[in-house]
């Protein structure tokens, strides 16, 4: 129906209601059907004209009554009350008398019929016209403002296949209350029982301010049911304007892992990056590419994307180009191998970056166990070349991305990253450039992360393979890891190893079970198979060794490690001779040196 047809229909209906109200009021008062008099006709016309006048003033005919609420009721009250007052004034002018009883009864009938007609349409629409034949019965967890907003959206929308049937809330004061006609039936502990009793097929978690721990507790209760569990966006996404509260999505594993995100000092990062020339090694990788994404909003003058793989560098260049061009940021790509020392010096000399974020590395533990010489080439020699070139080009700050596997390493990968940390700390002692390292745990969604592997195994019907039932790991998201790297660059004074407080570690067994259930399967559908620990793996990871720990945080949730013993001569000895060693010999040498197992006679011969 067009707007003009709709307004014409409403004006016609309201005219009948207004005239019926005043004549019926007179009939009630006089108890006589012969009520048609000149004064009554004048009052009727006055009331009719006044009603339409105030209806247009308050835009009563522009309201979408399927979404009517208290606000629309107040508008009806104002329009009718002012119409009655104008009619009373007209009666005083023409008859020199105001019929208070007639006007009072007319006001009540007028309100009842006008308001009733609007809300009757909403009831008919919601109940019979717009309601689908079948909707999935849905329980909303959280009876606060967000939960109420979600419920209202589901009730109004004809596009959704969800029908809210109950709220769950831990606030006992809300229990047994009705919100929008939906009962609050219990607390989080009763989720399993209420889903069964109400035959609910869906659960929506509608508490945007929920902590990670709180969400895990609720989700664990939801996993006891067969209902599909979804969630509204978290508070930080709502505040930033990225999403709205009615954008319901599946619960993701990153929602359940980690801890409250660290609040960053945006000003210090901006001072460190804005208007500067920034170079990122490994810019096509999962961490390097996210560092680039996080840098762009701070508007550097130039961003140099350095990587060995042309496809990945081209991909991140195309992704960033639009925002970069819009902000006047120059994007430059360099295809180069870190092992090519001459090329690294040429690149640093040509671009003269203010900041280098060194994210390039070999990170896959089992692969590096089988190819220790490649780990040395990329992680140790590559870092030395990049750091040496940065020192020669007078770079202000060099930030190396490290790993928790560098602490008491049991793998070649961890050992080479530990040696790379030593090199970076050594360069800080002989250079004006500030050299620092940033150490964190496993990154969700990165290449080599266990989660994509689990998801692929689940898609194939299983089994999901884990190496040990007691294995635990720290986890964080790629954006948070990348923001930590930027914050470390802003905090750098030189020589530090920055470490993020990563909260509680997660059992890989629990992670596998959660992923299976989140995928809509049961543990009976998908088997979990224990394959045994791979070479170089540890049951648990550490972030700082005992001799590295500083008790004081340098920033909320960020610690800095002390400088440990640096075996630079021994590292150079490995670099000069690793190509002549057998794989097993090289592996032992790397692990011994990274774990400070250096023989006294070797130290004496080196010092002499």
Automatic annotation (TrEMBL):
One Pfam assignment: CoA_binding_3
Family listed: Belongs to the polysaccharide synthase family.
Lineage: Bacteria, Bacillati, Bacillota, Bacilli, Bacillales
Classification via Gene3D superfamilies: NAD(P)-binding Rossmann-like Domain (3.40.50.720)
The keyword Translocase is annotated on this UniProt entry: no
The UniProt record lists the keyword Lipid biosynthesis: no
Keywords: Membrane, Transmembrane, Transmembrane helix
Transmembrane parts of this sequence: 7-28, 40-61, 73-94, 100-121
Name the record gives this protein: Polysaccharide biosynthesis protein EpsC
Polysaccharide biosynthesis protein CapD-like domain location: 278-561
Family annotation (InterPro entries): NAD(P)-bd_dom_sf, Polysac_CapD-like, Polysaccharide_Synthase-Rel
CDD domains: UDP_invert_4-6DH_SDR_e (cd05237)
